[in-house]
Amino acid sequence: MPLEVWKKRALATVHEAVKAGDVNQLAMMVKNGASVNEVDLEHKFSPLHWASLTGSLECLHWLLWHGADTSDTTPQGWTPAHLAAMRGRDACMQALITNGAIVSSRDDRGCSAVHLAAAHGHSQTLQNILRSGADCNSADMNDWRPAHYAAFHGRLGCLQFLLKWGASVDDVDNNGNTPAHLAASEGHLHCLKFLVSQGVSLTHTLGARNDQGETPKDLAKRFYKQAVQQYIDAVENERDFPGEQEDLAFPAHVAALRGDLDTLRTLVESGIINLNERDNKGCTPLHKAAGQGHLNCLQWLLEMGADYNITNDASETPKDIAKRFAQLAAVKLLGGETLSEDSDEELNSTDPSFFDRHGVEGSTDTFEDVNLSTTQKKEGRMRAYRKIEEFERLLEIAKSNYRQLGGILEEDRSKRKEEKQAERTIEELKAQLEYERVRREKLECQLDDYRAEIGHLNKCLHDVQATAEEKSLEPIKEKKKLKKPRKNEAGGVLVRRIPEK
Questions:
Q1: Single pTM value for the model
Q2: Domain containing 36: what range?
Q3: What distance in Å separates the CA atoms of residue 16 and residue 310, rounded to the nearest whole number?
Q4: Does some domain include residue 349?
Q5: For residue 197, what are the CA distances in angstroms to 194, 211, 244, 324, 446?
Q6: Residue 211: which CATH number?
Q7: Cβ-based neighbour number of residue 484 at 10 Å
Q8: Domain check: are 38 and 78 in the same one?
Q9: Coiled coil where (predicted)?
């Protein structure tokens, strides 16, 4: 019921207040004596159940703050986490997990929140549950694993998530059925193709027999699933499926499969092959690149004008193959959306727009039942912020009271430890500083001694050089004295005669 209709009528119970998303009315009713765990008479739901089901996030937070029981169950054995998983309430599921809700709780059929999220196609909620540590291989009363539920209901996105988190394609239920048997019996061709691609081999997956000796093909025949039957027939005629050994007659397909853009560009630009050339299975290079997620090849082929709507012999477009192999970036590049709206509606693989609507499931937190306006959301955020301030103030008061009673908080203990460590570090640094100061004084004294020694040596060197210089000048003076001419008494110069030989 729309929120405006709820506002026009008097809210008689806390359950109606939660369904209307009116947290003020909820608080007033609880203050007047209503219980946060009160069970309604018709559905046996607690307020927390209704908040999880309708996506009334603010009411859910208020209930959790005031001690609502996250483990309370309905007659069907559903906890609030079960209902959040059914409706894909991602934010509600995260709040429940944060507040200690046990997502592994089982209902009366043995289903946990993982089973219900997989069955209803809420892959984002499923991922949040798996991240909290839930088992992706837990079995219900019929030995159905989450992968069985995803395959039976045609939830490709959930199936891909489960296998990514370690689910097995070979697990069997109490009738010996694998997920491939269930996908074939319900005609979910896209899930069957994905399971084949993830199996050990083609023969192993499609040749598996249940307790009645039936293969997936036998079930497809029994339930008149023509598309699945035709696909299996085509696959059995070509044992080299899904193309592990490419025919060398199609080099462009091999290049696209390997992501070799240079070779692919050379082959196309030289005119050797056509952009939309088909191999012996009807696939084009665009199909090959899409299956492997080679975005560079995809981008170039699309820019060159390759036909992205062309189908192969299995009636698959390149986008279909990208979805089957969980190449989400390739799906988006080829014009698909990685997140759908709500995947609870009945699947119909004969619808041409089937993959556009049900390729990969995602978040379904759409608040269909509680449709809050922008103003109401703003008011809710303001209330939440005031609640934070109030809690912070109360927390400080509680800490102060605890300290006055002689208690030591962990933060105080950590602070004291840090202070002691800081004091110890300061003392060590002071000791190191004193050591360095004494060492510096010693080095300065040694430096003064070295300077004095250098001065003395310089003086000695100067004296030695002066003495050596004087000694070197004495022979020159003697020579000058010998060369000086002698004069006679008359003042003439005496000339020495050289005696004749």
A1: 0.62
A2: 1-102
A3: 52
A4: no
A5: 5, 24, 11, 8, 83
A6: 1.25.40.20
A7: 6
A8: yes
A9: 381-460
DSSP H helices, 270-406, are: 285-292, 295-303, 318-324, 328-333, 354-358, 374-404
Choose one of 334, 349, 364: the last residue of a domain. 334
Helix axes 179-186, 226-237, angle to 10 degrees: 120
Q: In angstroms, rounded to a whole number, what is the distance separating the alpha carbons of residues 173 and 143?
A: 4
pLDDT at residue 499, as a whole number:
55
Cα distance between residue 67 and residue 342, in whole Å: 32
Q: Are residues 75 and 98 in the same domain?
A: yes
pLDDT digits 0-9 by tens, 123-176: 889 999 999 999 999 999 999 999 999 999 999 889 988 998 999 999 999 999
Cross-strand bridge partners of residue 493: 487
In angstroms, how far apart are the furthest CA atoms of the chain?
165
Per the structure, the count of domains in the chain is 3
Question: Beta-carbon neighbour count of residue 490 at 10 Å?
Answer: 5
* Distance (Å, whole) CA 324 – CA 332: 13
**Which two three-digit tokens encode residue 238?**
């070509």
Final residue before a domain boundary, out of 306, 334, 362? 334
Question: Tokens standing for 117?
Answer: 């999220």
Token pair listed for 382: 């303001």
DSSP 462-480: HHHHHHHHHHHHHHHHHHH
CA–CA–CA angle 180, 186, 190 (5° rounding): 60
For range 344-359, the mean pLDDT: 40
